[in-house]
Amino acid sequence: MKSKKPNIKYIEWKSPEELHEASLNWISELKFIKDEQHFLEELIENYTIQLISGKTFEKSSEIVNELALNRKQINPLLKKVIRHFNELTILVDGIDQPKEEKKYKENHQELLVEVSTYFESYKETKRRIFDLIKAIVKKGKQKRLLN
């Protein structure tokens, strides 16, 4: 999957408050995704028989593996974002530390790319899961109508 790289040049001019808000949003969204992944796993469990039968097996196993990979990546990423969030004091402590402040903003840029890439990957996996389940449900409804 090809994701767009976000424009990261603007971070140089972002205020500490804006960086704080961005970090909070990342933390919030990552925590929501963790909960959402539980829902997706339950959804997959409910349709396991249909997912492993016939033509959908190969496609569904690929998607389930993608979801597992996303699930594996989320905790380290969330810890990294929380650590980054806690280091924000470098910008607001009132002490002029140009090297540390520059390093923080560079880390923020790198984290922006990493988080954005994760979000894009996860959203694509989620879309594929919903498309697959939707097709299974539609097929089940058609079978019931014919019977």
Q: What are the defining features of this structure?
A:
147 residues; 82% helix
Give me the secondary-structure topology:
Blueprint: H1 16-46, H2 48-52, H3 56-86, H4 89-92, H5 98-146
Helix pairs in contact: 1-3, 1-5, 3-5
In brief:
This protein is an all-alpha fold.
Beta-strand content bin: under 5%
Arithmetic mean pLDDT: 85
Most strands sheet = none
Estimated helix fraction: over 70%
Q: What is the radius of gyration?
A: 20 Å
Task: Give the termini separation.
Answer: 40 Å
Q: What structural class do the secondary elements suggest?
A: mainly alpha
User: Helix count, per DSSP?
Assistant: 5
Which term fits the overall shape? Answer: rod-shaped
Number of domains: 1
Topology as H/E string?
A: HHHHH
Number of strands: 0
- In terms of per-residue confidence, which ranges show pLDDT below 50 for 5 or more consecutive residues? none
Can you put this structure into words, describing what you see?
With 147 residues, this protein is mainly α. The chain has one domain (14-146). The protein is 82% helix and 0% strand. The chain has five helices and no strands. It has helices spanning 16-46, 48-52, 56-86, 89-92, 98-146. Helix 1 (16-46) packs antiparallel against helix 3 (56-86), helix 1 packs parallel to helix 5 and helix 3 runs antiparallel to helix 5. The protein is rod-shaped, with a radius of gyration of 20 Å.
